[in-house]
């Protein structure tokens, strides 16, 4: 049965005061210019009609499970204490109405007649029956011509001193996968301090901060003066770090140019050119290995990984850390054909952005999406010293969610 807002705003415990008295067990305010104009009770769900013509459907079991009252959520921790097994799967509302303040109230069956409260902004933000048009996705296929070698740029002061600058930095990283921060003080440890504006720094074999400079008898090619081909970092770890930060303390050597390229753009080029080769890299797992006297990390995974919708979600690629291939005999040559073509595209200067680090530059980029490389340099010509660190992917999504609280900022699809 459908009820208009005029018909359903006179239920019990209605009024604007009641709206503000009960929160939604959420730190976000979910401000919304939309309001509910009518309700329609169905067999197993409640239909909401909005002032802009949109329609939302919510199952009763979902509404009961998401009650935000102090009996169903811990009032401080905001974690669910309601036991979903305490009600039947086919639970139906005994009564529904809108308060004078525009919130939805639902009275449930039972002697006590438990009442749940839902604000319109929260319902609109959490609607699962509407399209995902409001979910923002990264720009996946930019290449060198599209970015025109103009890497998104921010200043140290705006990133460190303002939330607007911090949010802009996070959006650059999520949209384009890369951003540069200028003017970072050239003091050791600054890279972790700046990255810490987003979230907790990732600790690993090389420590929470690693030093990229020439080291005698090193256990990593990164700490040499050799050329490094396009790669992602730490592919030998089952949980490959999500974002990488490199801060230049000094760079006076001859050579050592820094190279960035969008692996999603390379993969799309391969898919259009030779879909059978793209399929091989998407279905044949390879092993990556990092070994030293004290550790032996190994991970077997796909080079091109896809999400549940079949879209490319991550690239794991590192030629100098790849273990000897173990694929069926008849699959070996086809695999090398696909692998070599991907590496050839990644090595093409037309697909690369090349730059020279200046003291104070901090480059940040998506380690699941952006390949980076380095040209060889002459260590006797000067000093090249970078410091780096990593963040897990959920740190940047967490920061964006916090920054978006109380605003209408579009949320990003998790990867």
Question: Can you give a write-up of this model?
Answer:
With 415 residues, the protein is an alpha+beta fold. The protein folds into two domains: 2-125, NE0471 N-terminal domain-like; 144-404, Double-stranded beta-helix (4-Layer Sandwich), CATH 3.60.130. It has helices spanning 16-21, 60-65, 120-125, 144-147, 156-161, 163-175, 190-195, 263-273, 275-283, 329-347, 393-404, and strands spanning 2-4, 36-41, 45-50, 55-59, 95-98, 104-107, 115-118, 153-155, 178-182, 201-202, 210-212, 228-231, 243-251, 254-255, 258-262, 286-291, 296-301, 304-306, 312-315, 353-355, 362-366, 370-374, 377-378, 384-391. β16 and β17 (296-301) form a beta hairpin. The longest helix is centred in the C-terminal third of the chain and has 19 residues, at 329-347. The protein starts with a strand and ends in an 11-residue tail after the last helix. Residues 5-22 have low confidence and may be disordered.
**Number of structurally distinct domains:** 2
Number of DSSP helices? 11
Main structural class: alpha+beta
**CATH topology (fold) name of the largest domain:** Double-stranded beta-helix
The name of the CATH architecture of the largest domain is: 4-Layer Sandwich
Shape assignment: elongated
Helix content: 10-25%
**What is the CATH superfamily of the largest domain?**
Clavaminate synthase-like
Number of strands: 24
Secondary structure layout:
Blueprint: E1 2-4, H1 16-21, E2 36-41, E3 45-50, E4 55-59, H2 60-65, E5 95-98, E6 104-107, E7 115-118, H3 120-125, H4 144-147, E8 153-155, H5 156-161, H6 163-175, E9 178-182, H7 190-195, E10 201-202, E11 210-212, E12 228-231, E13 243-251, E14 254-255, E15 258-262, H8 263-273, H9 275-283, E16 286-291, E17 296-301, E18 304-306, E19 312-315, H10 329-347, E20 353-355, E21 362-366, E22 370-374, E23 377-378, E24 384-391, H11 393-404
Parallel strand pairs: 8-9
Antiparallel strand pairs: 1-2, 2-3, 3-4, 5-6, 6-7, 9-21, 10-24, 11-24, 12-22, 13-21, 13-24, 14-23, 15-20, 15-22, 16-17, 18-19
